[in-house]
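Researcher: I'd like a candidate sequence for this fold, 251 residues long. If you have to choose between options at a position, lean toward the conservative one.
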């Protein structure tokens, strides 16, 4: 089954308003004309409006790097789906490994965010991935299975249209180490089979599963050539328009 690729740039905690405008404009100029792929940018909350304005006449999807599950209320430091939509956001990254590791977000909390995003019709990008230690102890699939099952708890089959999963091995994020295309393909296929078990084949076939972890111009083509890799979630290289431009124009 042919799925539309999704090439996502996560700017993490980088860019002031001026920098964000200029980076978004440079990336927008490099977006391919082809209809087989989508490009998504996830800038910090503080520059969402600026980036939304720059992207307003493009097809680039604007995403947030996190989202609360409530519309409003006493949730100091959080940002609601309604506020994000008000800034032009249509998608949210949820459960990034930095949220899990540095801010101790667990699967239950991440699940609340997923359900909140979907209930306000945002596309939810659920990030999963094993640590180096878990990988070395042969626990990769057990960890991923728990992250998927608990992260998707209560997500109805019809809501899966709005779900994306990003497989990001923690040992590959920002380290320069990338999973080989064979390693990544094997894991992506096992995630798809798990989704088939939880839901059904049709849903598994349609689900986009992105790879993340030191994706660069030099490795994007081989990763994207794999049948179950439907896109990339890119950190470091997304802050450089030249590099991200090459990544979104993968062959
Ligand atoms: C990420 O932040 O999701 C990521 C994959 O980072 P990097 O591309 O820098 O490894």
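Model: Candidate sequence:
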């Amino acid at each position: 089954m042919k799925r539309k690729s999704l090439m996502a740039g996560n700017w993490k905690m980088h860019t002031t308003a001026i920098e964000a405008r200029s980076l978004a404009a440079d990336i927008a100029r490099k977006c391919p004309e082809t209809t087989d792929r989508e490009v998504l940018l996830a800038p910090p909350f503080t520059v969402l409006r600026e980036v939304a304005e720059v992207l307003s006449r493009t097809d680039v999807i604007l995403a947030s790097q996190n989202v609360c599950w409530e519309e409003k209320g006493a949730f100091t430091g959080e940002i609601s789906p309604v506020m994000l939509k008000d800034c032009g956001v249509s998608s949210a990254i949820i459960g990034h490994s930095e949220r899990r590791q540095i801010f101790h977000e667990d699967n239950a909390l991440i699940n609340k965010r997923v359900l909140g995003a979907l209930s306000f019709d945002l596309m939810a990008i659920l990030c999963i991935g094993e640590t180096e230690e878990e990988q070395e102890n042969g626990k990769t699939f057990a960890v991923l299975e728990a992250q998927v099952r608990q992260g998707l708890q209560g997500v109805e089959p019809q809501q899966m249209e709005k779900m994306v999963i990003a497989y990001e091995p923690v040992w590959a994020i920002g380290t320069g180490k990338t999973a080989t295309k064979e390693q990544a393909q094997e894991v992506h296929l096992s995630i798809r089979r798990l989704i088939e078990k939880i839901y059904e084949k049709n849903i598994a076939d349609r689900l986009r599963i992105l790879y993340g972890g030191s994706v660069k111009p030099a490795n994007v083509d081989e990763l994207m050539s794999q049948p179950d890799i439907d896109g990339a979630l890119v950190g470091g290289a997304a802050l450089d328009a030249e590099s991200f431009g090459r990544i979104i124009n993968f062959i």
